[in-house]
Amino acid sequence: MSTIVDTFIAPPCHDEIEILYQDEHLLLINKPAGLLSLSGKNPQNLDSVHYRLVQQFPGCTLVHRLDFGTSGLMVIARNKAINAALCQQFSQRTVQKGYSALLCGHLDDDEGLIDASIAKDPALFPRMAICAMSGKPARSRYQVLERVYQPLEKGSKLPLTRVQLTPETGRTHQLRIHCQYLGHPILGCDLYGGLLLPGTQQTPRLMLHANALNFVHPVSGKPVTAHSPSPF
């Protein structure tokens, strides 16, 4: 059995965490791109959303995570009971999540469903794999918002499609690998294509932003509808 070794070292993130809402039970935050959700085992990967917030809000815990390169909305529990209640909403798939993304190329269809099971493959670590045999069911919906051309050097243009992505399941790297499976990887994605701008050495950030998060407040029972405008 092969041993998986994570050699990733996160570069310093100087952007602040934006707190959009807080009460005695939970926090709603806007995570910056380039910040880990949870501290890594490597001491150089100590800085994270949880590491920063627990200094200000002792006892707070993560209910869900966003990938290192993804920015946007996260809900943070301020105690164990709230964490359990929110985790139950996530596991029952009653939490609605939405993401804004820039995909490489122009999609043919204006909307669609990506239904492709995702599996862990130690040989591909840290990447995941599409696998109908051993993978867990994964479904994502997409809706095209606009098709654009980004000017590049020497007069060339890069076709990009701005989409709204809605994951119906919550697998690791789901949106990133599903967009690659669609043939249009997310711009700036280092694991699933779309990393470099053609004809340049420019590497943009991962163009994926969690812009919508809807759930029920575990204490008040009232619906919480959060929105964060895309920074790109």
First CA to last CA: what distance? 42 Å
Number of helices: 3
General form? globular
The topology string of helices and strands comes to EEHEEHEEEEEEHEE
**Which class of secondary structure composition applies to the elements?**
mainly beta
Detail the poorly predicted runs: none
Question: What is the CA-atom radius of gyration, in angstroms?
Answer: 18 Å
What is the strand content?
Answer: 25-35%
> Overall pLDDT, averaged?
93
Fraction of residues in H or I helices: 10-25%
Main sheet record? 10 strands, mixed
Q: Could you give the count of β-strands?
A: 12
Descriptive account of the structure:
The protein has about 230 residues and is mostly beta strands. The longest helix has 12 residues, at about 80-90. The chain has helices spanning about 50-55, 80-90, 175-180, and strands at about 20, 25-30, 60, 70-75, 95-105, 110-115, 120, 130, 140-150, 155-165, 210-215, 225. Strands 1, 2, 3, 4, 5, 6, 9, 10, 11 and 12 form a 10-stranded mixed beta sheet that branches.
